[in-house]
Every structure is written in structure tokens, then in C-alpha cells.
């Protein structure tokens, strides 16, 4: 019995999960998101469903077996047979038919379909990775926001304590007749203002914690400082864009979508060719077709099928060729959008760093100014209200500094997510379904030149359009 107690304790601790009062790291928060977020689960289910579509496509290479059974009434009205005698009326009978068909050649239709499904699997995997990167960044934002609002609340509480202390000193001076009622009332008004700021910041902190719980799925208890990712940030915009073109899951998703469209076009081209099947069929029955007697026959042979229906086949091929061009245009558009987001993230980070440096200088001077005013107050050169004014300026500067530090840190994470390397930078393994493999496994051909990884500027776009129009 005693040996079972540790296991029970472990189970209870595991079941309590988020309620355990232990430190919640950023990595833990992201792992909670990756494991439980419904958007990621939906993307994973989509990828798994397409894997079964690939399995269906592969089975077109397998022999097809059919078994058909018939029982009922038949009647012959004048036809003769050398082996069977025609019944004078309707007869009751049955027939069993078995067929087996093996596809020998279908113009590479099946092969193209397998390649298409493989590209769709890889695209779905990149979609899982994309969702993981986006939601991980959202977890970072909420984690940072909780830390920021809590820091602001702590600052507001210190500000309130400071004003209460100054008000107490003003009250003492008023009781001694040193200062007037106006100064005392102004000091009291500052206390009320500081208290109101606390209430406002408490509400902001509660809102941030609620959003964190909604997205991450656990309460933000005992959060740690965000780990620095400054060393992982690309040193230049060109390097960031270069990593984006090779690593961004959104671009890779669109490239796989182009591969799927090209495979579909190849499948459409298969209608140029006839299909060849090796087929065998056997039938056995009794009193079938209005004839009395047993019936047994068997045949095996090569079957050629080719369909003619005006210009429909050609129209199908032309349609899919245009679909490929459409898919490539979507790739170009999405690539531009992703690169624009990287540029915006880069600009935001640069601006945040410059502003942080300015605010740090302002906060440093505000602290020095308040200290100087306090020293001057001691010798009678400043009033307590002068000190309160400098405290208000210092409080605003320190609040701005907290916000600026939080924004700068988040901007670094946002840039990494825009590039598509947030999870690898943090050393967090993406979900298993985020790994592309199918295209390489089935030996699917590479994408056309217009779909390769490159920088899509205006010159490249003109060249691409010219290649499409040829």
C-alpha cells in the first residue's frame, strides 16, 4: 500500500496541472499552446486527413476486385441460344459475377495524383508550422503583457506609497501651521490620483491575465523574465529577408500549393493518352436472361479505353495550366506580404530601440531631478509640492520605460516570428505534424523556376510574366 502513495501523489500533481504554484516559463506557456490550441489541432487533423487521401491515390495501382450477385426474374422473347433453351415464360434464376482489373497504364494520371497529394500533405504540414509560429508569438505577447501590466501596477503602488508619505509630511506641516490648507488639499488630491492609477492598472493587469488564460490555457502564475533573443536577431534587413525566403512556413506553404497545382496540371495532361487494363471476368448462374439451364463463362484480356467528347479534354488541360499560373501569382502575392511584414517588424524594432534609449535618458534625469528637489527641500529652497511635481514626471517616465522595454523585447520576438524562426530560436520542437516529408518520400519533382525561392521585386515579376506568356 505504501508503495502506491508516490504514484498517487504524482497523479494528483499532474491532474492539478496549472493550479500548481510553480514558476511558469515562457517555454512552458508555448508548449501549452502547441499541445492544446484548437487552431493547431484543426491544422493537424487536416494534414492527417490528406495523408489518407494519399493512401487512396496509391491504391489505384492495386488490382481492383468486384463481386456482383443477382437473383430475380427474367424472360426471353424470341431470342435463341445454341446451348440454352428459351423458356416459354418468365423464369426465376440467379447469377454471380466476379471481376478483377489491373491498371497497366493511365497516362501517368495516378502518378500525378500521388504527387499532388504529397504536395498537399507538405503544404498542410507547413500550415501546422505556420499556426504554431503565429500562436507561439501570441503566447509571447500575452506573457510579456502580463509582466508589463504587473510591473506597471507595482510602479503605481510605489507611487501611491510615495504620495501617502508626502501627504503625511504635509499634514504634519499643516498641523504646525507651517503650510496652508491649499497645499494640504493639493497633496491629498495627488494621493487620490495615485490611488485611481492603481485601480486602472489593476484592471489592465486582470484583463491581460484573462487573455493569457484564454489563449494559453493556464493561469499566469509566477512568471519569469522573458529570455533575451537579441543574439538570434538578424544583423541586417537583407539577412532577415534572406532567412525569410528559405525558412518562412507561409512561403513554403504557398510553394507546396504551387507544386500541387502543377501535379494537377500533369494529371489533366494524362487525358491525352488511352488507358490500358488487364481484366478478367467470370460468371456463373442458372436460368438467366429467360433461358433455362446453367450458365458459366470466363474471359480475360487487355482492355483499352479512350474517351472522345468534343474539345472538353483540351479545355480541362488549359484550365489546369491557368490554375498553375494562378497559384504562382498567389505565391508572389503572399511572398510580398510576408516580406512586407518582415520589413515592418524590422522598422518597429529599430524605432523601439531608439525610443528606449531616449526614454532611459529621460527616466535617469527625472530620478536625478527628484533627488535634487528633495535635497533642496531639506534646505528650504523647494516646497513639497515641487517635489510632488517631479515625482509625477518621474512616474510617467518610469511607466514609459516599462512600456518601451516590453515593446522592444516583443519586437525582437515578432521579427523572429515574421522570418519564421521563432520556435527554433527558443529551442522548442514544433508539433510532429509540422514536418514535411511526403514530397521527398514519393519522389515528387521539384517546383518550376517561377516557384523557387527568390526575391520577388519588380524586375523579377516582369521576367516571370514573360515566361508565363510564352
Automatic annotation (TrEMBL):
Keyword Transmembrane part of the UniProt annotation: yes
Listed Gene3D superfamilies: Outer membrane efflux proteins (OEP)
Keywords: Cell outer membrane, Membrane, Transmembrane, Transmembrane beta strand, Transport
GO cellular component, one term: cell outer membrane
InterPro entries xrefs: OMP_efflux, TolC-like
Biased composition (Polar residues): 449-470
Pfam families xrefs: OEP
Keyword Ligase belongs to the record: no
Subcellular location: Cell outer membrane
Region Disordered: start-end pairs: 437-470
A single MF term (Gene Ontology): porin activity
Protein family per UniProt: Belongs to the outer membrane factor (OMF) (TC 1.B.17) family.
Identification of the protein by name: Outer membrane efflux protein BepC
Gene encoding the protein: bepC_1
Amino acid at each position: 500500500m505504501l508503495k502506491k502513495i508516490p504514484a498517487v501523489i504524482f497523479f494528483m500533481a499532474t491532474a492539478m496541472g496549472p493550479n500548481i504554484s510553480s514558476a511558469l516559463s515562457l517555454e512552458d506557456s508555448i508548449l501549452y499552446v502547441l499541445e492544446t490550441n484548437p487552431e493547431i489541432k484543426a491544422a493537424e487533423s487536416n494534414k492527417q486527413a490528406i495523408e489518407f487521401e494519399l493512401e487512396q491515390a496509391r491504391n489505384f495501382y492495386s488490382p481492383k476486385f468486384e463481386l456482383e450477385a443477382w437473383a430475380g426474374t427474367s424472360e426471353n422473347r424470341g431470342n435463341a441460344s445454341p446451348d440454352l433453351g428459351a423458356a416459354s415464360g418468365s423464369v426465376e434464376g440467379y447469377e454471380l459475377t466476379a471481376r478483377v482489373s489491373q491498371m497497366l497504364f493511365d497516362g501517368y494520371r495516378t502518378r500525378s495524383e500521388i504527387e499532388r497529394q504529397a504536395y498537399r500533405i507538405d503544404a498542410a504540414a507547413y500550415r501546422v508550422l505556420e499556426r504554431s509560429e503565429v500562436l507561439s508569438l501570441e503566447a509571447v505577447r500575452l506573457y510579456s503583457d502580463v509582466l508589463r501590466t504587473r510591473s506597471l501596477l507595482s510602479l503605481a503602488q510605489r507611487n501611491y506609497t510615495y504620495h501617502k508619505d508626502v501627504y503625511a509630511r504635509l499634514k504634519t506641516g499643516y498641523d504646525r501651521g507651517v503650510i496652508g490648507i491649499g497645499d494640504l488639499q493639493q497633496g491629498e488630491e495627488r494621493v487620490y490620483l495615485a490611488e485611481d492609477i492603481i485601480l486602472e492598472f489593476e484592471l489592465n493587469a486582470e484583463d491581460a491575465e484573462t487573455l493569457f488564460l484564454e489563449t494559453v490555457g493556464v493561469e499566469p502564475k509566477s512568471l519569469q523574465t522573458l529570455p533575451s533573443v537579441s543574439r538570434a536577431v538578424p544583423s541586417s534587413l537583407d539577412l532577415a529577408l534572406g532567412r525569410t525566403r528559405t525558412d518562412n512556413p507561409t512561403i513554403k506553404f504557398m510553394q507546396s500549393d504551387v507544386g500541387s497545382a502543377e501535379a494537377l496540371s500533369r494529371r489533366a495532361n494524362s487525358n491525352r493518352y488511352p488507358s490500358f487494363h488487364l481484366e478478367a471476368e467470370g460468371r456463373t448462374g442458372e436460368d438467366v436472361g429467360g433461358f433455362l439451364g446453367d450458365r458459366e463463362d470466363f474471359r480475360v484480356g487487355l482492355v483499352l479505353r479512350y474517351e472522345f467528347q468534343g474539345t472538353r479534354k483540351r479545355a480541362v488541360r488549359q484550365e489546369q495550366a491557368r490554375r498553375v499560373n494562378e497559384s504562382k501569382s498567389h505565391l508572389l502575392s503572399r511572398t510580398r506580404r510576408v516580406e512586407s511584414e518582415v520589413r515592418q517588424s524590422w522598422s518597429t524594432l529599430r524605432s523601439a530601440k531608439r525610443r528606449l534609449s531616449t526614454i532611459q535618458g529621460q527616466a535617469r534625469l527625472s530620478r536625478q531631478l527628484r533627488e535634487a528637489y528633495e535635497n533642496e527641500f531639506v534646505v528650504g529652497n523647494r516646497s513639497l509640492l515641487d517635489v510632488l511635481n517631479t515625482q509625477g514626471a518621474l512616474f510617467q517616465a518610469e511607466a514609459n520605460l516599462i512600456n518601451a522595454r516590453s515593446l522592444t523585447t516583443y519586437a525582437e520576438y515578432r521579427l523572429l516570428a515574421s522570418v519564421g524562426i521563432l520556435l527554433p530560436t527558443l529551442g522548442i520542437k514544433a508539433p510532429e505534424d509540422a514536418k514535411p516529408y511526403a514530397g521527398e518520400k514519393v519522389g515528387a519533382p521539384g517546383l518550376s523556376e517561377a516557384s523557387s525561392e527568390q526575391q520577388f521585386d519588380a524586375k523579377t515579376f516582369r521576367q516571370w510574366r514573360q515566361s508565363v506568356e510564352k
